[in-house]
Design a protein that fits this description.
Chain A has 10 helices and 4 strands, in the order ααβααβααβααβαα. The two termini of chain A are 19 Å apart. In chain B, helix 4 packs across helix 6. Classes of the chains: A mainly alpha, B mainly alpha.
Chain lengths: 216, 972
């Protein structure tokens, strides 16, 4: 834990811990990682993310990286994009993936669920107009399949179209033929994913132990 | 019910029993011909069976030489030719096996007669009871139990079928997601149970609770503890399949029951050797050897399994020419994995399980759909029957005087200990596990896991295998094991369902994930991996992703056929959903909603996996999915069955069978494929046709009005602009002169009288809209067409109606077209789609612009139709407006007719019909649409108009539907 000494002072951590729900050890580790990524700068830019080797083969990496620079994910009711993020924003975005505590009331669970889904939704809703349009959805699917070779382009279209229609049929019920489905709103998004236990799925384990040295 | 099964089984059993002892030619011919009489049960004095000998029970007992002769026999025909010969000894073994299988299967049928009954009582209980009854009969008949669950039979044949099925259909993702927990329970949990039970029993024995007659030292009791403590896969599958707890819970209990095999095998062997050498001679080295042996047995078993998995994957890669034996490879190699592990005395269950899990992905991708179905059905059938036999034989084995070495102390203590230690073990391990699990196992889960620790046939087979000379208390152990197995399977099996209900354990849903769920599940994986990477953590997702990449880059390349290599699971899901939609469309006879959801796989995909599109197969497939539920195939939920039969009826009644001579095929090596594809196309076109017709009659009426109104507003303004820029239209008309001649050629016959056709069209139009008949056949003329209505558009509704054909044509007809097309038409099918639409159009409603006949004009309309987006006027006067105007023109030109038809259905229809032949000829749309313009850019980002959206889905829409493309934000 010698690394901690070079990091911001404890009170600052306390503040962040309260805000994000991470433990101080976790914050310490993440901070170290932050410094590592930003090359000891105070802020992190998109280029810094591109240097992570493991990320380079992730098909939806651009979306995920975008999410880190999206103000909607900073829990400040703000919209737009930023070019650089500080450690606090980094932590706040990360905290979307924090596992929920063990004993939760039904409402808490629901709110966590909404929050996580909101994060996903924002990630797909790139133009922030409150709906995931077909085009945006296609983009998502295309990227998802971008590693699977030549078939993927047209397949992605087909899949996203089918998925969109499915959403339309699930969320709108019977549609008149000339009705037009604008896109997936957040409510519909909740609806179509209601069977996925996202509050238990969209988590990663943040270690209290330092392993960053293992990564390049 | 039971009585019935009794009666039914009696002769069979009697026959089997009797026949065992009858030598060839010893039976009267009537017995051979007629039904065997029951009296033959009186063979009580033939006691030839040495049932404790290892081997195959049935075969063994059958082979027992019937040394003595029967009283009634003796008709030794000295010589001469016998017309009917009694060749019992020849068919004996397979005959008895077949009879037993029949008995077991019939028993299953009988149990499922009463739904109410089977809901409460698990099948395994019923089978054991049946076994008891049968055993009683056999015992009464022969005074000695002839049959019992032979360890050899069990381990070599019955168990592998069940484990093979379980391993092959193991939900791999779920399994590996929970691998940590499974391993902990399987290894630590089993060790804990074994030691605690063994030591405590020994302690109780020392205390004198267990009778003196139960001879045994510490080693014997530890041995007993080892074999009695392992949770049994057969029992777990049998009981849990009917309980349907949530999948995580199931996979943990089930995975544990499979993976604890290594522990059990090692403990069992180690203790046996300790018992042999005597506890005094055991040295520390032996314990170390034991540990080493455990590692070798488990890791070795796993490796053997994985090696066979690779071999299997590799072999199925090359079975393209011999599809018919594909399933055989699967069975053989999986079974070989088991046998090979047995050969080296490694953990066979582990080996087989991992072979199944490992190979599944590649095999399923490589083999054909038919083979997949075959594999699934055969495995389920075998596993199901093996399970049935196991439970029946467990029951039968219990009815045996030699096993009734009852010791109340031992039995009750064992029952208590295994239950208590199981619970303690689960709670302790879960407590540790929950430190690490993201999704902790709560108390309810723990209760179910403790209660679900069922013991079964493995324990029984192991205890029977004990050497009675070395383990003096063998009989007591056997009796205790039987009681324990019966108690856990019957009592716990009976009560676990109510318990689960009472505890409100989350149940498994038998639901297929929707395509959106699939997409998001996929996305989750990548997101989580990415976040782990960003956070610099090397967690589970990180490694899973690494593995996936390895798999993709190397393993899949090695083990998958090239044709399937690139396909993703999402694609699979998409295909299935397509088919589901197609089915529902057919099912509901072209209902609007579903038609709106129709999508079909592209031709490309058909060629690469033709089988997937088979509706019937899909329905069948859909019944079971990948699951471990042995029952699932025969217990398809009622609704599903109904739905299925309905679909089948509907299909049978409505499907167009391609006209094709049926060719019987004689080849044993190949099965004819290819019909299907053709049929799919037929179905597709037929549906299209019928739906087109319905649209024609209903759709327009409903939506005509608002639509046309909408259009009108826009077009007014647009046309003005358009008029300002006639030159531009001309210029882009010139760009695409090629298509028209082709058209003209095609329609040569009709073209011979172009004037007439023109007249017809124009006349018709003129009546309504007062369009001048002699319109110059030039580009401006077309513009006029569109212009005239708009100019004349007065606010009065009647007037509007009049012009509807012109304006509405843009909105309405395309709607009907796009309705059809709305659905995602796979790119490859689009041509076919368009063709069928256009042909329909020409048939039912002459869409026609009178003008298109003229080459130049039709060129123009074509351009308007298919290229609006690409057209960017040189001037800056409002390109969108201009192109839209052009579209309006096009639309009105093409689709005026249908509108009229709607408006004045009665009077016009007659006329229309008369005109049809003429019209249709002129109207044939310009053939396959040109590929979408490369540089097309979306007009305006907002899609307000439904048809715009709908049509935007269509790559190459039919002529009338093309307008939206200019505005549709998404170009395909």
């Amino acid at each position: 834990m010698g690394a901690l000494q070079s990091l911001p002072s404890e009170p600052e951590y306390l503040d962040l811990a309260e805000k994000t729900g991470f433990s101080q050890e976790q914050i310490g580790i993440l901070h170290k990682r932050f410094k590592q990524l930003s090359h000891n700068e105070e802020s992190l830019r998109k280029d810094d993310f591109n240097t992570i080797p493991d990320l380079s083969c992730n098909p939806i990496r651009t979306q995920i990286v975008e999410a880190f620079f999206d103000k909607r994910n900073f829990r400040q009711n703000d919209v737009g994009h930023v070019q650089e993020i500080g450690f606090e924003e980094f932590l706040v975005v990360m905290s979307h993936f924090r596992p929920p505590s063990l004993n939760l009331s039904e409402e808490q669970r629901e709110s966590i669920r909404r929050e996580k889904l909101r994060f996903l939704f924002n990630m797909h809703d790139t133009d922030n107009d409150g709906t995931i349009t077909l085009e945006e959805y296609r983009h998502v699917v295309e990227e998802l399949l971008s590693r699977s070779g030549p078939l993927s382009k047209e397949t992605a279209k087909g899949i996203s179209d089918a998925a969109m229609l499915e959403v339309a049929s699930i969320s709108m019920g019977h549609m008149e033929p000339d009705e037009f489905y604008e896109g997936i709103t957040f409510e519909h998004f909740l609806k179509i994913l209601k069977d996925i236990e996202i509050e238990t799925r969209m988590n990663i384990r943040f270690l209290n132990m330092d392993t960053t040295t293992l990564c390049k | 019910m039971l009585i019935l099964s009794w009666l039914l089984l009696l002769p069979a059993v009697g026959e089997a029993v009797t026949d065992l002892y009858v030598t060839e030619a010893s039976l009267q011919s009537e017995l051979g011909v007629g039904s065997p009489p029951v009296p033959s049960l009186a063979v009580s004095h033939f006691q030839t069976d040495d049932y404790s000998s290892p081997g195959i029970a049935l075969a063994r007992s059958a082979e027992e030489p019937a040394t003595t002769t029967e009283e009634g026999e003796s008709h030794h025909h000295g010589g001469g030719y016998k017309i009917v010969q009694w060749e019992w000894s020849y068919v004996q073994t397979p005959y008895i096996i077949a009879i037993w299988l029949l008995v077991a299967s019939v028993a299953k049928i009988l149990f499922h007669f009463s739904q109410r009954f089977t809901k409460v009582v698990p099948e395994s209980c019923m089978l054991i009871l049946l076994g008891l009854v049968l055993g009683g009969i056999v015992l009464m008949a022969s005074n000695k139990q002839l049959y019992q669950l032979e360890p050899g039979l069990f381990f070599l044949f019955l168990l592998p079928t069940i484990v093979g099925d379980a391993g092959y259909f193991m939900p791999a993702r779920l399994f590996f997601d929970n691998l940590g927990a499974i391993l902990l329970y399987a290894v630590v949990g089993t060790l804990w149970n074994a030691f605690c039970t063994g030591f405590c029993l020994y302690g109780v024995k020392l205390l004198g609770v267990i009778d003196e007659k139960v001879e045994g030292g510490l080693m014997e009791f530890l041995l007993f503890g080892a074999l009695i403590s392992a949770v049994d896969p057969v029992a777990v599958i049998a009981v849990f399949e009917e309980v349907h707890v949530n999948e995580t819970l199931f996979i943990i209990v089930f995975g544990e029951s499979l993976l604890n095999d290594a522990v059990t095998v090692v403990l069992y062997k180690v203790y046996i050797s300790f018992v042999e050498v005597g506890p005094g001679n055991v040295q520390t080295v032996d314990y170390v050897k034991g540990v080493a042996s455990f590692l070798i047995v488990s890791i070795g078993g796993t490796l053997v399994g994985l090696i066979f998995a690779v071999i299997l994957g590799f072999i199925t890669r090359f079975t393209k020419k011999v599809r018919i034996i594909e399933p055989l490879f699967v069975f053989l190699l999986v079974y070989l994995a088991y046998l090979t592990a047995e050969l080296f005395s490694l953990s066979a269950i582990l080996s087989m399980t991992f072979c199944g899990i490992g190979a599944n992905k590649y095999v399923e991708a490589n083999i054909s759909q038919k083979s997949r179905t075959t594999v699934k059905y055969t495995m389920k059938t075998l596993a199901s029957i093996a399970e049935t036999i196991i439970f029946i034989f467990l029951g039968i084995s219990a009815v045996d005087k030699s096993k009734w070495a009852w010791d109340t102390g031992l039995i009750s203590c064992t029952l208590i200990f295994i239950f208590v230690f199981r619970a303690m073990g689960v709670i302790g391990q879960t407590w540790v596990l929950n430190w690490f699990r993201l999704v902790p196992l709560d108390k309810i889960d723990q209760v179910v896991m403790s209660y679900g620790g069922l013991r079964g046939a493995v324990a029984f087979a192991l205890v029977v295998l004990l050497d009675g000379n070395q383990v003096k208390a063998k009989d007591y152990f056997v009796a205790t094991t039987i009681i324990v197995v019966f108690f856990t399977v019957m009592f716990q099996g009976l009560t676990i369902k109510p318990l689960v209900k009472w505890l409100k354990v989350p149940r498994a849903t038998n639901r297929k994930p929707t395509i959106n769920e699939e997409i998001h599940e996929r996305a989750f994986d990548h997101i989580l991996t990415a976040v782990e990477d960003i956070a610099g953590l090397q967690g589970y997702h990180h490694w899973r992703d690494k593995w996936e990449q390895f798999d993709k880059n190397y393993l899949s390349k090695l083990l998958l056929r090239k044709s399937v290599y690139r396909k993703s699971e999402l694609w699979e899901a998409y295909q299935k959903i397509n088919i589901r939609d197609a089915i529902s469309v057919i099912d509901q006879g072209g209902n609007v909603l579903t038609s709106a959801r129709l999508s079909l796989p592209s031709m490309a995909s058909r060629t690469s996996f033709p089988e997937v599109t088979n509706v019937t197969n899909y329905l069948r497939e859909n019944g079971s999915g990948v699951c471990l539920d042995l029952q699932v195939i025969d217990n398809v939920p009622g609704a599903k069955v109904e739905e299925e039969t309905e679909t089948h009826h509907f299909l049978a009644g409505n499907l167009y069978k391609p006209r094709r001579r049926y060719q019987s095929h004689y080849s044993r090596h190949f099965m004819i494929v290819g019909d299907k594809e053709r049929q799919d196309r037929e179905i597709f076109q037929r549906n299209m046709k019928s739906r087109m017709e319905t649209f024609k009659t209903t759709r327009h009426k409903r939506h005509k009005k608002d639509r046309s109104q909408k259009k009108r507003k826009g077009s007014d303004a647009k046309e003005q602009e358009l008029n300002d820029k006639p030159r531009r239209n001309v210029s882009w008309q010139d760009k695409d002169p090629v298509v028209v001649p082709v058209d003209a050629e095609e329609e040569k016959g009709e073209h011979s009288e172009p004037e007439k056709e023109d007249d017809v069209g124009i006349t018709f139009v003129a009546r309504k809209a007062e369009t001048p008949k002699e319109r110059p056949k030039s580009v401006p003329a077309t513009l006029d067409v569109c212009q005239s209505p708009s100019v004349a558009t007065p606010p009065s509704p009647t007037c509007g109606e009049k012009h509807l054909p012109w304006k509405g044509g843009v909105g309405t007809l395309p709607v009907c077209v796009s309705m059809e097309a709305t659905k995602i038409i796979p790119i490859d099918l689009q041509q076919a789609w368009n063709q069928s639409i256009s042909s329909l159009e020409s048939l039912s409603s002459p869409p026609v612009p009178a003008e298109p006949l003229h080459p130049r004009v039709s060129a123009l309309s074509r351009l308007g139709a298919s290229r609006p987006a690409s057209y960017t006027p040189p001037g800056s006067g409002g390109p969108a407006a201009a192109s839209k105007g052009a579209n309006v023109a096009q639309g009105s030109a093409c689709f005026q007719f249908p509108e009229k038809e709607e408006e004045e259905e009665a009077p016009l229809s007659e006329q229309q019909r008369e005109m049809q032949p003429l019209m249709s000829s002129s109207l044939r749309p310009p053939g396959p649409p040109p590929p979408p313009p490369p540089g097309s850019t979306p007009g305006s980002g907002k899609r307000r108009n439904p048809c715009v959206y709908l049509r935007s889905l269509v790559t190459a829409p039919p002529p009338g539907a093309s307008e939206p493309r200019s505005r549709g934000p998404t170009q395909l």
